[in-house]
C-alpha cells in the first residue's frame, strides 16, 4: 500500500491523494516519470521529492520514515510492507496504575513464533527480543501497554506502533478488544469467560499457591489476545484497502496456530465465583 501512498507528502491531503488516483497516478513511479503533474507547483515539487525519498526509505526497510510522515489515521498502511518485521504484543498486570502495579506477563507474536515472558522469570528478555522488529501492533497499547513497559522495563519502545483500537474504531468497531472480536466473529477458544480482572486473580493464585495451571491459563489468555491481534490487523487492513482502488492488496486471513498453552477450565470456573473483594 505504501507504494500507492501520496498523502505523506507535505502540502498534500488524503483528498488530494484520491484525486491523483482518479487521474491515473497510482504509484511513486507514476509521479517521478510524469512529464507534467496536475497539482500546484509547490505541491508537485514536494510530491516529487517525497516519492524519491519514499523509494529510498522503503528500500532500506525504514518504517520510521513513513510513520513520521503519514497522518496518524493512515499508519495502518505500513502493515503489509513491514509484515515480516511486525510484532504483536500484549501485557497483563497486577492493576491499572503503572507507577504502583507491575507487569505479570507479556506475550509477543510475529505470525510465526509465539514467545512469553513472566515476572521474575524472564521478563527482561522481552527488552532484547522486541528489538528484532521494525513495527509493533497492539490494542490500546499506546495508552496502556507501551507506557507500562517503558515504566517497568525502562526501555524506549520507540518503534512505529499501530494501535488497533483506533484503526478498528475508524471502521465502526467500538469497545474493548473482546467486543471487537465478537463483532468480527473471532473465536476465543474456550477463554470467553476470562477477562482482565480474572487475569489478575490467576496471577495471584499462582503467586500464593505456586499453581502452575493458573499461570498457564493466564499465559493462554494473554497469548490468545496476541494471536487474535494479527487477525484483527489483517481484517482492518483489508477493509481499509477496500476503500481505495487497490483491493488487490488484500491479505488472506491465516489459519489460527495451534495453542501449546492450555487453559484449565476448572480453575477458570473456580475463579469466576470470586468477587472484586476476593470472596467466593
The unreliable regions are none
Which radius of gyration do the C-alpha atoms yield? Answer: 21 Å
The global form is elongated
In the CATH scheme, the class of the largest domain would be Alpha Beta
What percent strand? 5-15%
Biggest beta sheet summary: 5 strands, mixed
Number of strands: 5
Percent in helix: 40-55%
Query: Kindly state the mean pLDDT as a whole number?
Result: 96
Per CATH, which architecture of the largest domain? 2-Layer Sandwich
Widest beta sheet: strand line-up: 3-2-1-4-5
Count of spatially separate domains: 2
The termini sit apart by 52 Å
CATH superfamily of the largest domain: Ribonuclease H-like superfamily/Ribonuclease H
Structural class: alpha/beta
Give the H and E element order. Answer: HHHHHEEEHEHEHHHHH
CATH domain topology of the largest domain: Nucleotidyltransferase, domain 5
- Contiguous helical run count: 12
Provide structural commentary.
- With 280 residues, this protein is an alpha/beta fold.
- The chain has two domains: 2-60, DNA polymerase, domain 1 (Orthogonal Bundle), CATH 1.10.150; 80-272, Ribonuclease H-like superfamily/Ribonuclease H (Nucleotidyltransferase, domain 5).
- 44% of the residues lie in helices and 10% in strands.
- The protein has twelve helices and five strands.
- A five-stranded mixed sheet has the order 3-2-1-4-5.
- Helix 10 (196-209) packs antiparallel against helix 11.
- It is elongated, with a radius of gyration of 21 Å.
- The termini are far apart.
- The model has no long low-confidence stretch (mean pLDDT 96).
